[in-house]
């Protein structure tokens, strides 16, 4: 009976009120996008990020802005950091880590890559067997799996 009353009240509330209640009771998340970007030689683009823990080397990407679609955010971040445009963008995986959602894509590069952001120290194109030594091991394994399956 109580559940029915609560359900009736909930359905009669204005949508904005329901949304406000839901948002005030749910944890907030950050969302980022990244990509395994390859060139015509099947090399992967890696960036040496200023703010990345550890070695700094890893996939290109960044945070999704409010109201932005993930693929749009990926294209913006890559353009801002490297001046590259992307082709053949495909969602690879989505995972959560505590209060963070990471969306990882694959894509091919169009144009010439160059450092175009203060957030990036360097960039390079790497073969699966010659990636930066201190790069995140999970990212290394993913690159090897993807590049060796092509």
Question: Helices, strands, pairings?
Answer:
Elements: H1 2-12, H2 15-25, E1 30-38, E2 44-49, E3 57-58, E4 60-63, H3 70-82, E5 85-97, E6 100-110, E7 120-126, H4 137-148
Parallel strand pairs: 1-6
Antiparallel strand pairs: 1-4, 2-3, 2-7, 5-6
Describe the protein's architecture and organization:
This protein has one domain (29-148): Nucleoside Triphosphate Pyrophosphohydrolase (Alpha-Beta Complex). Helices cover 31% and strands 35% of the residues. It has helices at 2-12, 15-25, 70-82, 137-148; strands at 30-38, 44-49, 57-58, 60-63, 85-97, 100-110, 120-126. The strands form two sheets. It has a four-stranded mixed sheet with strand order 4-1-6-5, with helices on one face. A hairpin with a 7-residue loop joins β2 (44-49) and β3. The chain is elongated, with a radius of gyration of 20 Å.
What do we call the CATH topology?
A: Nucleoside Triphosphate Pyrophosphohydrolase
Structural class: alpha+beta
Please identify which CATH superfamily we are dealing with: Nucleoside Triphosphate Pyrophosphohydrolase
Largest sheet: 4 strands, mixed
* Low-pLDDT segments, ≥5 res: none
SSE topology string: HHEEEEHEEEH
Number of strands: 7
Radius of gyration: 20 Å
Mean pLDDT: 88
Cross-sheet strand order for the largest sheet: 4-1-6-5
Q: Give the amount of beta strand, in percent.
A: 25-35%
Q: Considering DSSP H and I runs of 4 or more, what fraction of the residues is helical?
A: 25-40%
Distance between the termini: 59 Å
CATH architecture: Alpha-Beta Complex
Alpha plus pi helix count: 4
Q: In CATH, what is the class?
A: Alpha Beta
Total tally of structural domains: 1
